[in-house]
Amino acid sequence: MDKKERETYLYIIGFVFVLIYLYILTIFILTEYVIGLTWMCYLGILFITIGIFLKNSDIILSQVYILLIPDFLWGIDFFYRLIFGYSLLNFDNFFFTSRPLWRKLLSLQHLITPYLAISSLYFLKIKKKKIKPLLISIFELIIIFILGIKVFPAKEGINCLPDYNSCFFSRSLPFLNYQFGWFLFELLFVIVAYFIINRLKFLFEKEN
Predict the structure, then answer these.
(1) For the chain, what is the mean pLDDT?
(2) pLDDT exceeds cutoff 80 at 106
(3) For residue 107, which phi and psi values (nearest 5 degrees)?
(4) Rounded Cα gap, residues 81 and 89, in angstroms
(5) Cis bond leading into 162, ω under 30°?
(6) Which residue among 89, 128, 162, 181 is least crowded, i.e. fewest CB within 10 A of its CB?
(7) Is the pTM of this model over 0.90?
(8) HEC string of the chain?
(9) HSE (CB half, 13 Å, CA atoms) of 205?
(10) CA 120/CA 144 separation, integer angstroms
């Protein structure tokens, strides 16, 4: 596949992300829930879109590191509940609520976002394994964590902070401070995703 073809596929994925984000933006404006755009998943879509059109793999990678494992677990829980009627991982899944379908469709982006982003990296090609995207991910987690416990209204439960009530049916680890556990697990997810992505050789340019 030559450079022009790769760029064409890359921009197609970029425009898919544009459409997804415009849908999200429209719904949040109509429902007067603009603060909802600060959820990590929606920030991730915005940053991935920017990264695609700037052809900046560091931006895209940083979001893949943050979203890959949580979205993978979300997908497992989604299909399990779809088949068996109850949650496996105890997520309070937005899709299985009484809200209108046009609002519930928002949550389905979890099923495609990280994988479309990885596809964009395949067409963009990562020049070499770098630590910079990982550092960006960790820095973003720190900012989101601080905003979640110090700035955003607690009742909104943005990014499942400052407590678990907005995202889980019950506290899954009662022996661990929730906020500390949140950051620990999010950091672990990022590191695991980092090692997974760096083993996918087809995403990287071949060394001469």
Answers:
(1) 91
(2) yes
(3) -70, -20
(4) 9
(5) yes
(6) 128
(7) yes
(8) CCHHHHHHHHHHHHHHHHHHHHHHHHHHHHCCCHHHHHCHHHHHHHHHHHHHHHCCHHHHHHHHHHHHHHHHHHHHHHHHHHHHCCCCCCECCHHHCCCCHHHHHHHHHHHCHHHHHHHHHHHHCECCCCCHHHHHHHHHHHHHHHHHHHHCCHHHCHHHCCCCCCCECCCCCCCCCHHHHHHHHHHHHHHHHHHHHCCCHHHECCCC
(9) 12
(10) 25
Tell me which residue of 17, 18, 1 sits closest to 125, measured CA to CA: 1
- Residues 91 and 168 sit within 8 Å (Cβ to Cβ): yes
Q: What is the pLDDT of residues 1-38, one digit of tens each?
A: 788 899 999 999 999 999 999 999 999 999 999 999 99
The residue assigned the tokens 């299909």 is 79
- pLDDT the model gives residue 91: 75
Record the tokens describing residue 98, joined without a space.
């009484």
Q: Report which residue type is found at 131.
A: I
Is pLDDT at 88 greater than 70 in this prediction? yes
